[in-house]
């Protein structure tokens, strides 16, 4: 087994695996980071701790969920029912390898909230009460909407402080991004943000001054370090 590089990055950010963890595993073995963050659409076919068993003794594993992580009972349970479920960064700020990271998993959906339009339902409870008993899943939100963003999800973070914001959706510098995530990043006082979802790795440098932070999109199964350097190009980059 090779020795870790002396300039090993503290944290690696992983683009949407969609069930293929080969790049994630290889990057951890090669770079030995203190922690990794999966940026959603994990779609684990086995419990996440089983998929990542070979690296659990080498690094801390953290994640946010994506829209496809609620596509089936299997994907949902292998993530949210895994022994790593407590490593979900969604809706909170956690100190990871000495860095404060705020997380926002999931996506905006028009049935609930599609910024900049006004929200229809403030909380999951409010939406569930309008779904009808036959549409509920395991006594609560329909499974699909377990990955829907509600205003209350972001409200939990406004007023907190963080160094990095990780999201599944993109901020406004992406053609399909959202200004409300810019506002959240500004409120948190972050210097960097990382997102997945769009499977691309665009150059956002021209937007940095307007945004007030450096934004990075990590491509499909790509790997980026905590300074925004691409270690493994995304499959579609």
From TrEMBL:
Coiled coil: none
Pfam families, per the entry: Metallophos
Gene3D superfamilies linked to this entry: 3.60.21.10
Boundaries of every Calcineurin-like phosphoesterase domain copy: 11-200
Origin: domain of life: Bacteria
Record protein name field: Calcineurin-like phosphoesterase
Organism: Pseudomonas cuatrocienegasensis
């Amino acid at each position: 087994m090779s020795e870790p590089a002396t300039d090993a990055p503290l944290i690696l950010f992983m683009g949407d695996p969609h069930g293929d963890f080969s790049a994630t595993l290889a990057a951890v073995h090669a770079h030995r980071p203190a922690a990794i963050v999966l940026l959603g659409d994990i779609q684990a076919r086995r419990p996440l701790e089983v998929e990542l068993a070979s690296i659990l003794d080498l690094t801390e594993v953290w994640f946010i969920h994506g829209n496809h992580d609620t596509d089936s009972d299997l994907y949902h349970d292998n993530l949210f029912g895994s022994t790593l479920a407590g490593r979900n960064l969604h809706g909170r700020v956690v100190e990871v390898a000495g860095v404060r990271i705020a997380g926002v998993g999931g996506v905006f959906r028009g049935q609930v909230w599609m910024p900049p339009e006004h929200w229809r339902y403030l909380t999951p409870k409010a939406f569930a009460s309008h779904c009808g008993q036959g549409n509920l899943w395991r006594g609560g939100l329909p499974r699909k909407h377990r990955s829907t963003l509600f205003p209350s999800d972001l409200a939990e973070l406004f007023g907190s402080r963080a160094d990095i914001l990780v999201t599944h959706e993109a901020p406004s510098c992406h053609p399909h991004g959202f200004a409300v995530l810019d506002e959240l990043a500004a409120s948190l006082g972050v210097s960097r943000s990382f997102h997945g979802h769009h499977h691309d790795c665009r150059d956002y440098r021209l937007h940095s001054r307007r945004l007030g932070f450096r934004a990075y999109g990590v491509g499909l199964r790509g790997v980026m370090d905590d300074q925004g350097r691409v270690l493994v190009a995304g499959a579609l980059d």
